[in-house]
Design brief:
The protein is of the alpha+beta class. Helix content is 46%, strand content 12%. It has 2 domains: 184 residues, Beta Polymerase, domain 2; 129 residues, no CATH class. Helix 1 crosses helix 2 and helix 7 crosses helix 11.
Amino acid sequence: MRLFEHPEFEQAMLRAAEQFQVSEQFIEKDYYVTEILRIVADRLGDKAMFKGGTSLSKGWGLITRFSEDIDLFVNRHRFDPVPGTNRMNRILTQLTEAVAEHPALTWLVDEGRTIGGHGREDYLSYETKFAALPGIAAVVRLEPGIQSGTFPTENRPITSLVAEYLVEQGRSDMADDLTPFDMTLLHFRRTFVEKMFALHGKVIRLLEEDHPLDRDARHYPDLHVLAGRSEVRDMLASREYEEIRSDYDETSREFFAKIYRPPADLSFADSPALFPEPELRERLAVDYEAQCRLLFSAGAYPSFDEVLERFEEIRKLL
């Protein structure tokens, strides 16, 4: 029996939410995200790498914000023979088909799409047991793609919060999907650099095209957490920082040349995203507050001033 089929599923969610001091909706979504990752790991093994913001909570336990997307790198060079574009598209589609076989998930086929021949964006819904929260849908976005850096990585155990709670309570035999599994994760040292690139590009678009920041403001609280980690600060002071920046720049120019907006000389020391002038700072703060109120179910997140102060601490390293 899978946990969602158990008559105590709802109560388990509520108790886990109380234990971890987050909402039951957060615990429920975390459960389904974990089960999607379980299918990915079973189907692709080390051909898939988990990355992005959701990996910071699921794989590293660094953040506790809502996240609906699963960002995956599928390494085409680990297939034999190396697949061309059409076969790779089939592999990515078949991955979503495999996930959709989970009896609690419904593939919203009409909302999915192929992205430029090098990735997919698919949506899988589940029937929630709880009242809706503003901005939080009972949907998980699966984004597998072939464009990504490949270093540094680390194998990490993945488990759901509700499974962690039940195991602590001696209820590991309650369901068959409570056991952890391993996945390859992009290390959060690189995620920090990639989020700086992403945020810089979004703010440049805001300045040049008046394109709203909206949900991309979520990068700010993630960067605040990561910038406080000694592993990240050590990386910034090492040759690895230059290697990651150069590799990210090369990959972005190959796959996203039309929309890629890097900082001058790949330096973030004067990026308006991290060190905004007063007028821009006020505008960014509004988007930041709006997103954080939606993303943090426990209501605890740093102020925008605290985020920018942390950037100032490491400015000379950027």
